[in-house]
Amino acid sequence: MLVLAFDTATAVATSALCHSERGRVLGERSSRAVRILEDVDELLREAGVDRGAIEAIVVGTGPGSYTGLRMGLVTARTLALALDVPVAGVSTLAALAEGAPGALPLIDGRRSEVFALDEGVPVVLPADELKVEPGKTYVGDGAVRYREHIENGGGVVPPDEDAVHLPWARHHAALAKDFGPAERAEPIYLRLPDAERALSR
Questions:
Q1: Residue 163 to residue 144: CA distance in whole angstroms
Q2: CB neighbours of 67 closer than 8 A, spacing ≥ 6?
Q3: Taking the CA of residue 142 as centre, how many other CA atoms within 13 Å lie in the half-sphere pointing to its CB?
Q4: pLDDT digit string (tens) for 136-183?
């Protein structure tokens, strides 16, 4: 099955075109979220296929940037409707963990917070309350941003430029299982967007 996967939840968006049964990546990209459709077109062109060849879509469901998540989900739903293909959602944290087996994924949540996994469940917590496991490796833009806190606690953070800090879309494609209507791919927000928080005050 030819799968188009992408994630726009973090500051760096990723996309990939994969053959799911063969586990083969035909191409992948990293850029800004606003370029996601251009990246998709480039992937298809380089693979020598048109959009009609896509059989399924996998989209990153976060947690992460509210705007980035909405952009990714709207793009997934629009493409799914246009191409009449099913969609699966995969957590951005799960994709980060898949790309660095044994490591703990962290996404920068801004506001001095991080998104993390607690026994496999996505959570948001103040960065200075992150309990660091000595000897454990931490990956993701949250690990990069809070490197000092993690390393002071005995944790390990790969160099900033290491590819393990990106939620590569090929990992989303590898983890995707439950394909269905695009509306079932729900975002993992964990907190209200800034605009709603301001209105509630």
A1: 12
A2: 33
A3: 33
A4: 999 999 999 999 999 999 999 999 999 999 999 999 999 999 999 999
Ranges of beta strands (E only) in the chain are 2-7, 13-19, 24-31, 56-60, 87-90, 104-105, 107-108, 113-118, 121-126, 138-139
Tokens of 196: 């709603």
CA count, 13 A, side-chain hemisphere, 168 = 18
- What is the number of H-type helices and E-type strands within the chain? 7, 10
Strands 13-19 and 24-31: antiparallel
pLDDT in tens, 45-91: 999 999 999 999 999 999 999 999 999 999 999 999 999 999 999 99
Q: Which residues does 46 contact at the CB level (< 8 Å), separation at least 6?
A: 26, 27
**Model pTM above 0.85:** yes
